[in-house]
């Protein structure tokens, strides 16, 4: 099995958007508007300050994705990297796809002097994902996330 991770390019836009729609439905029971998701993917791909997508491929076929976004921490004088939009196609689960994506991001972060931590958030009910993150050495924090929706979107991470 040839499993590779690469930075996403504009040709990946539809795959990334499709994966995000599937992710929201599966992990949170949310039905997202595909055109809106595609516009969001396009915005990020055109502006690297918003974040970076990575695609995992098995034998050249898209098997999974993750996205990084950045949050400046004045307490740590560095950029926290947030791992988001984690999705692995069902037929590729259990084959190390997310592990490889995580290892790729972790290696990139370790090369930077101003990245003190990798973070992510996960839906409370997604215990499978939580176990995966713990196996990779991540731990729960003391923080809870609060949100005030200003655009009328249904709940959820995105």
The overall pLDDT, averaged over residues, is 94
As a whole number of angstroms, the C-alpha radius of gyration is 15 Å
Number of helices: 4
How would you characterize the largest beta sheet?
Answer: 5 strands, mixed
Strand order of the largest sheet: 1-2-3-4-5
Strand-residue proportion: 15-25%
Number of domains: 1
Q: Bin the helical content.
A: 25-40%
| Class by SSE composition | alpha+beta
Uncertain parts: none
What is the CATH architecture term? 3-Layer(aba) Sandwich
Shape: globular
Topology as a string of helices (H) and strands (E)? EHHEEEHEH
Distance between the termini: 32 Å
* CATH C-level label: Alpha Beta
- Give me the CATH fold name: Aminopeptidase
What does it look like?
The structure is a single chain. The protein is of the alpha+beta class. It has a single domain (3-135), classed as Gcn5-related N-acetyltransferase (GNAT) (Aminopeptidase, 3-Layer(aba) Sandwich), CATH 3.40.630. It is 33% helix and 25% strand. It contains four helices and five strands, in the order βααβββαβα. The chain has helices at residues 13-28, 34-46, 97-110, 127-135, and strands at 3-7, 52-58, 61-73, 78-88, 118-120. The protein has a five-stranded mixed sheet with strand order 1-2-3-4-5. The longest helix has 16 residues, at 13-28. The termini are far apart.
């Amino acid at each position: 099995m040839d499993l590779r991770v690469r930075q996403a390019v504009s040709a990946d836009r539809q795959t990334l958007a499709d994966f995000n729609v599937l992710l929201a439905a599966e992990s949170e029971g949310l039905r997202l508007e595909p055109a809106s998701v595609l516009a969001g993917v396009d915005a990020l791909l055109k502006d690297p300050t918003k974040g970076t997508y990575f695609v995992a491929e098995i034998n050249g076929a898209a098997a999974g994705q993750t996205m990084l976004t950045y949050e400046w921490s004045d307490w740590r004088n560095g950029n926290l990297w947030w791992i988001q939009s984690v999705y692995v196609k069902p037929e590729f689960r259990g084959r190390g796809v997310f592990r490889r994506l995580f290892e790729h991001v972790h290696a990139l972060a370790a090369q930077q002097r101003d990245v003190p931590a990798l973070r992510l958030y996960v839906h409370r009910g997604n215990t499978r994902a939580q176990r995966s993150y713990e196996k990779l050495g991540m731990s729960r924090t003391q923080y809870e996330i609060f949100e005030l929706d200003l655009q009328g979107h249904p709940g959820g991470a995105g």
